[in-house]
Amino acid sequence: MERSSYSDPVIRRALVFIAALMGLAFISLLLQFISFVLLLVFAGILFAVFLHGTSHALSSRFPIPQKVGLGFALLLLVAIVFLLVVLGGPQITTQTVQLTERIPQATTELRKLLGESELGRRMLKMASEPQRLWPIGSNLIERLSGVFSTAFGGVVNVVIIVFLGIYLSISPSAYIDGALHLVAQGKRKRIREVLSATKNAMWRWLAARFLSMAAVGILTTTGLFIAGVPLALALGLIAGLLSFVPYLGPVLSFIPAVLVALSGDLMDVVWVAIVYASVQFLESYLITPLIEQRATSVPAALLISFQLLLGVTAGALGIFLATPLLVMVIVFIQMFYIQDVLKDRIEVLGNIDG
């Protein structure tokens, strides 16, 4: 009887190797999908924290129940979105379309300009071979390039986040109590304390960050408009949105502004640099210190490293959620490890009363 070709040891090893590669590829895709879903759920939780914190602030200042405060918070958000759409919607849409048309043109012009010098040609050559020079960096650049498309194209994800946040904020105790039934009774009180401290830390950071975003957006739009830079409203909106990401956000928002300015004269580039440097200076040394409590500050090196890590592994959504996720991780480490295991007394991040 003829022996089957699959019994050959070399063929068997090859088949096992191919199967292992296919299994690793499937697991990698599955982990990417799971990480995206988990980040989406975390974004919904973050929105719920914002709604709950806003409703609590309203109910503590006015004689209204928490649920009524939540209704007012939702109405306030709807009113703000409605005003933005009615007052600036057409102009924002027009400028956004023009921006998407100008950036490729400006990129082509920049390549031509760089190609006129030896140094520029070397820079273009390095940029065309990122995998050989810096594999991780090229992966990050590819993922960062999806920030703008995610910001304007992820309508379905935004709807999921909004509805998830609303449902979680209506009755957060029901979800927390249900989760606590999965742990031993003796640990439930401590876990509830940690969850409460985490909520307080994220709420403080969110409140400060949203105020900072509004200030950055208004200042950038005003500065670019006064300087006569085209598409000031769209560029200011991008600057405000991306300032949600500390440190990396201002750098990312500066890139499209420079590309737009390159389509004009050299003075536009100078004015863009002045405006963005001035706004960043005010945001770093005046706005943030005034509106952000020191208890919610995160070490810069740690935050940037965490942003890069999530940017490489999870893309644009990971970059946007890196800071609040790091706030949660820090609170967990401070309370579960430093306080409970090491028995050290420390001030918990975002919780002034400890």
Question: How are the SSEs placed, and which strands pair?
Answer:
Layout: H1 9-61, H2 66-114, H3 118-128, H4 130-133, H5 135-144, H6 147-153, H7 155-170, H8 172-180, H9 185-227, H10 232-242, H11 248-262, H12 266-291, H13 300-339
Helix pairs in contact: 1-2, 1-7, 1-9, 1-13, 2-10, 2-11, 5-13, 9-10, 9-12, 9-13, 10-11, 11-12
Number of strand elements: 0
Strand content: under 5%
Instruction: Give the ordered list of helices and strands.
Output: HHHHHHHHHHHHH
Q: What's the rounded overall pLDDT mean?
A: 79
Helix content: over 70%
- Specify Rg, calculated over alpha carbons: 25 Å
Number of H/I helices: 13
Based on the model shown, name its key terms.
mainly alpha, globular, 354 residues
Protein architecture, described:
The chain has 354 residues and is an all-alpha fold. It is built from 13 helices and no strands. The relative contact order is 0.10.
Short description:
The protein is built from 13 helices and no strands. The protein is mostly helical and 354 residues long.
